[in-house]
Amino acid sequence: MTSFLLLVMLTACSATPQDLSGKMFTFPQQTKTAYVRLNTTRENFSAVTVCQRSFTDLTRDHTLFSMATPSAANDFLIFMEYKTDELEIHIKNRKAAEFRGRDYKPNMWHSICSTWDSVSGLVQLWFDGQPSIRKFVISGSNISGPSIIMLGQEQDSHGGGFDINQSFVGMMSDVYMWDYILSPCEIQRYVDDLNFTPGNVLNWRALEFEIIDRVLIENKQMTCF
Question: Which residues pair with 160 in a beta bridge?
Fold first, then answer.
């Protein structure tokens, strides 16, 4: 069993889509080498929605989702700025928006959905089902080019440039990505873990991914009442 976990932890790669329903990625230590790369062939996005669940006890800055292209290391970045207690969304290397007043408590699962539309330039954050105000960042151009999507590390270059002090430690699950803006009702169905339209870019139920270094696939842990 130990050797099996080590093999999964160090070399896991899903060449064909894998259903991770009821599973989670566990990032058990602070490192600048461990991450999960999520594979997609999409190279052009006029809009984006990303939803995910995470669980951590970190008391420092950390990344939740990092998407880079050769022209922009932060083409779509979800980042927790701990000192100012802000969840940030960066688009096309621009600090898109700072969202305050989120009850980002440690040691519990949180559902976070983020949206951006290139026509309006507006971004919005949904935290545990509660929407933020909509903020402008950049409009008029798509996210384009070969993308590298990572969980666990924040890219300061296309596929690299990691900072150990921005790494994620904890658990992540139910990661989905769409190339359009998800409706509020669909986002609420995701938050409530009901039937919703799976991501057409990233689908947790049919995910292509690679695990680099010490990340484990485990059964998702939930609180029993």
Answer: 157
Report the distance separating Cα 184 and Cα 170, nearest Å: 28
Quote the tokens at residue 21: 């329903």
Q: What are phi and psi of 75, to 5 degrees?
A: -70, -35
The residue to which tokens 């696939």 are assigned: 217
What is the 8-class DSSP label of residue 197?
Answer: P
For 215, the token pair is: 């990340």
Q: Output the pTM of the full model.
A: 0.92
Q: What is the pLDDT along the chain (225 residues), one digit of tens a residue?
A: 443 444 444 455 656 899 999 999 999 999 999 999 999 999 999 999 999 999 999 999 999 999 999 999 999 999 999 989 999 999 999 866 789 878 899 999 999 999 999 999 999 999 999 999 999 999 999 999 999 999 999 999 999 999 999 999 999 999 999 999 999 999 999 999 999 999 999 999 999 999 999 999 999 987 665
| DSSP collapsed to 3 states, 83-132 | CCCEEEEEECCEEEEEECCCCCCCCCCEEEEEEEECCCCEEEEEECCEEC
- Token pair belonging to 218: 């485990």
Amino acid at 141: S
